[in-house]
Design brief:
By secondary structure, the chain is mainly beta. The chain contains one helix and twelve strands, in the order H-E-E-E-E-E-E-E-E-E-E-E-E. The chain is globular and about 45 Å long.
């Protein structure tokens, strides 16, 4: 198992000055990033540590590794990346901004993803929190599967008192930890849902339930900004 990727020294978080106002709740903050991905101009090279869109970027060890990333997303896709590694570094991850909102102990986060990846293999999932120049990671015990055919994966995390997720933060990022030798990754769909502590019902804006699969009807796209 590869260790969680450290944040890039020169860019621990995306340029929030472009990302607009903070959206309450990590589920809605992630949906804000996915909205930008759906309506971006697709194709072309991706520079590690620079935003694909505000709130989404690839983190890579460019000091010890050499990597070339190409956005090959089709016109109806969410995100497809070819990550060609000429020399493996120490870390490689896809990062998505979640906003700084803390969560109460007992809250359960669920990440549902429709992924395709070659070569196949499970992807680790973490949430990194940054505050006052310090960073801490909370790790999902589950991994998300990838393979030649798109499949649905679910990762769950119950928030406990000792996690960074319960404390104030300047920013938080969802990290999909990628194999340092590279891959072709297609993210066909991605959802985050919360079950609040105490069973008080769903967090506003939750889209409960997993996508039925890569061939299922997609949620209608929002009006372009």
């Amino acid at each position: 198992m590869q260790p969680p990727p450290p944040a890039p020294k020169d860019r621990a978080a995306p340029d929030r000055s472009e990302a607009g106002p903070v959206v309450a709740g990590p589920d809605l903050a992630l949906e804000n990033v996915l909205h930008r991905l759906r309506w971006r101009a697709r194709g072309g090279p991706v520079v590690p540590s620079h935003p694909i869109v505000p709130g989404a970027w690839i983190a890579a060890d460019t000091a010890q590794g050499r990597i070339a990333v190409e956005d090959t997303t089709g016109p109806d896709g969410l995100l497809t990346l070819n990550l060609r590694v000429d020399q493996p570094g120490r870390w490689l991850s896809l990062n998505l901004a979640l906003g700084p909102t803390p969560l109460a102990p007992g809250t359960v986060l669920g990440l549902v993803a429709v992924l395709r990846g070659t070569p196949p293999g499970p992807l680790g999932v973490s949430i990194r929190s940054g505050h006052a120049g310090r960073e801490a990671d909370d790790h999902f015990p589950d991994r998300l599967p990838t393979g030649a055919a798109a499949g649905v994966g679910v990762a769950l995390l119950e928030v406990t008192q000792d996690m960074a997720l319960t404390r104030p933060a300047d920013w938080r990022n969802l990290m999909l930890r990628l194999p340092v030798r590279g891959l072709r990754l297609e993210v066909a769909d991605l959802r985050l849902f919360l079950a609040p502590a105490g069973g008080a019902g769903a967090h506003p804006g939750i889209r409960a339930g997993a996508p039925a699969g890569a061939d299922a009807a997609r949620v209608p796209a929002e009006t372009p900004p």
